[in-house]
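Next comes this protein.

***
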Amino acid sequence: MTTIFLRVAAAALLAACAFAPALHASVLIGGTRVILPAKGGEVTVRLTNDNTTPALVQAWIDRGDPQSTPDSVDTPFLVTPPMFRMEPQRDQSLRILYTREPLPADRESLFWLNVLEVPPKPAELETDGKNYMQLAVRSRLKLFFRPEGLQGDPLKAAEQLRFQVSGGSVLVSNPTPYHVTISDLAVDVGGKAYASESGMVAPMSELRLRAEGLPAAPAGTAVRFTIVNDFGAATALIGAVAP
């Protein structure tokens, strides 16, 4: 899940980006990713306002543009309610509905769920009319649309990854129809583990991960990696460099 901080004025819901890593979202999302099966055509995401003050919340789905706004997106999904007030210490359910517009039937499609939280105006500013600046927090979660009848088990897709090593990088091949998120990966060469960057391999695609100092590795060399499954849990696996 990605969190972005936005500066907003009193009447604005979206404005220029700012970074404030010391802040945290008060509206918590139940999970780190969303799986939407085509068979059911909808999924529910639970939100919780963990703060002592209310918040205005807006939700929308985009195709991967972190600068997207509700007015600029065009996806085959509806989010309801799209905007609402959350009282403190209360829950709210978001329904995500697939509108049945055509999507690839032989693999998953990736979208992003955005949840924007705008805190209320400070009480001491309600009557004095002074200008003020406040921070809105936007969280982004991966949303995987999963067609019916895909081959294989999504929880075992990572076991089918293939690895090739060349000049300081690892090429990861994913022959499955599922996305695989790699949170960490290391290749054991000469008694030393060479760590690579993390990343997500799209279905039936390849991804090259940089691994500083990684030398050539013969076939069968151990590749230790951790993936994030449908439930947001980490699973450690061991693979090998392919011939």
